[in-house]
Amino acid sequence: MKTRVFIVEDELIHAEALKIALEEAGLELAGECNNADSAFDKIARVKPDILLVDIALPGLNNGITLASRVHSELNIPHVFTTSFTDDAVIRQAVSTNPSGYLRKPVDAVNLKAAVQIALGINKTEMPEIQRENYLFTRIGDRLVKVTTNDLLMIRADGDNYISLVYEKKEISCRLTLREIS
Question: Tell me: the pLDDT tens digits for 61-78?
Answer without folding.
Answer: 888 999 999 999 999 999
